[in-house]
Amino acid sequence: VPSRRVAAEAVARVYGEKPAFLEAIMLSDDPREVAPVAYKRYGAKGTPLCRGDGRTCHRWGQDEAGEPVLHELECPEPQDCDFARDQKDRIVCRAITNFQILLPRVNLWGTYQIDTSSWHARNNYLSWRQQVMAVVGRTRGVPVVLTRPKIISQNPRFGGKAHFPIALNTPDNERVKKILSSFVRARAFFVGVDQK
């Protein structure tokens, strides 16, 4: 996985500084591999403090000598976990989805990760997956266009606030050809190398 800065620069060269969309390919049919979900809490500087699955968590702490140590503990839901709350009693542990995607127009050899705590983004992925599995029988290798449409929250708690969850769309035929052309060129290159 490329570093965050290197990945951002590579994506910007193809899609611009603030991309309106990304053309991607899923590398597996298994949601646990391409869109794993875990409860995560981070520190003030983005340092990971705890990661759990609702049953077991791995939380950084210190041993008797003050050295960092990773503890394996029971993992309750965030609303039932004292460690999931900050000093102002806000829940700061969230279910995070890590989308693992290939961006063939950027780099054929790097897996890119997009993290989101949006329930809508997770649901959008599962809906897209169900549709593609019904039609194609797999999602691995199927081109997809990721966008972030504006949605106004209908929940009164958020007061009509706008948010931009990841949406997945199956591209039209012309865009599919454009996305897959990178694969065709790479395959032709390696077939030529094998024959030499």
Mean pLDDT: 85
The radius of gyration is 20 Å
Low-pLDDT sequence parts: none
Helix content: 25-40%
Described by the principal axes of the CA atoms, the overall outline is globular
How many helical stretches? Answer: 4
Structural class, judged by helices and strands? alpha+beta
End-to-end span in angstroms?
Answer: 31 Å
List the helices and strands and how they pair.
Layout: H1 4-15, E1 21-26, H2 31-34, E2 37-42, E3 48-52, E4 56-62, E5 68-74, E6 94-103, E7 107-116, H3 119-135, E8 143-147, E9 151-152, E10 162-163, E11 167-169, H4 173-195
Antiparallel strand pairs: 1-6, 1-8, 2-3, 2-6, 3-4, 4-5, 6-7, 8-11, 9-10
Describe this structure in words.
It is globular and about 60 Å long. The mean pLDDT is 85. The longest helix is centred in the C-terminal third of the chain and has 23 residues, at 173-195. With 196 residues, it is an alpha+beta fold. The strands form 2 sheets. Strands 1, 2, 3, 4, 5, 6, 7, 8 and 11 form a 9-stranded antiparallel beta sheet that branches. Strands 9-10 form a two-stranded antiparallel ribbon. It starts with a helix and ends with a helix. It is built from 4 helices and 11 strands.
